Amino acid sequence: MADTRWQRERSASDSRAYIARFDQLEAEGTDLHGEARTVDAMLPRRARVLDAGCGTGRLGGELARRGHQVTAVDLDPVLVAEARKNPDLTVHEADLSTLDLPGERFDAVVAAGNVLIFVARGTERQVLGRIAEHLVPGGLFVTGFATDYEYAVDEFDIDLAAVGLVREHRFATWDLRPWHDGAGWAVTVARKAGA
């Protein structure tokens, strides 16, 4: 299995610095929950949510605070240890390209914060397939990533369709500004066929 881009580019000390950076932002009063507000508005109450590529568990923790049942997964052991400090999250250390949570199906899967551009190049469709496998029929997939990396939005759309996820919406920001060619960020909402 190829290392993910995150593994190739980040060390354990980089992950600790990432944690410290978000702790500092929180201490400064920065709004860190825009993604959670957006996702929460799309979900039924007490939805079962998978936070895929959860990092520190910031997003999943906020969704849990809002009453959702959240399972989180990440490959980085430093970030997984940080996410496990939140008693409201069930956290797994796993690679999204081989994710297998037997018997677990979710109303929504969220992959925020550039998750799809940090997986190993060439595994994006495989990752999306594992995500689709963990959704209930009609379940939502919400993701956001920067558009200036190798994985282009057009390729992403082809991969979504190939694994049975139907794109419903695309925005240029997490606060739902309209999508336009040249946007630096793509927030996409897709749904698993079937319900």
Task: Give the proportion of residues in helices.
Answer: 25-40%
Structural class: alpha/beta
Strand content: 25-35%
Mean pLDDT score: 90
Question: What is the count of β-strands?
Answer: 7
Rg from C-alpha positions? 16 Å
Number of helices: 8
SSE string: HHHEHEHEEHHEHEE
Structural shape: globular
Biggest β-sheet strands, sense, barrel: 7 strands, mixed
Give the CA-CA distance, first to last residue. Answer: 34 Å
> How do the strands of the widest beta sheet line up side by side?
3-2-1-4-5-7-6
Can you tell me the residue ranges where pLDDT is under 50 for at least 5 consecutive residues?
Answer: none
Which secondary structure elements does this structure contain, and how are they paired or packed?
Blueprint lengths: L4 H5 L2 H16 L6 H9 L5 E5 L5 H8 L3 E6 L2 H7 L5 E5 L12 E6 L3 H4 L5 H10 L1 E12 L6 H10 L2 E7 L13 E8 L3
Parallel strand pairs: 1-2, 1-4, 2-3, 4-5
Antiparallel strand pairs: 5-7, 6-7
Helix pairs in contact: 2-5, 3-4, 7-8
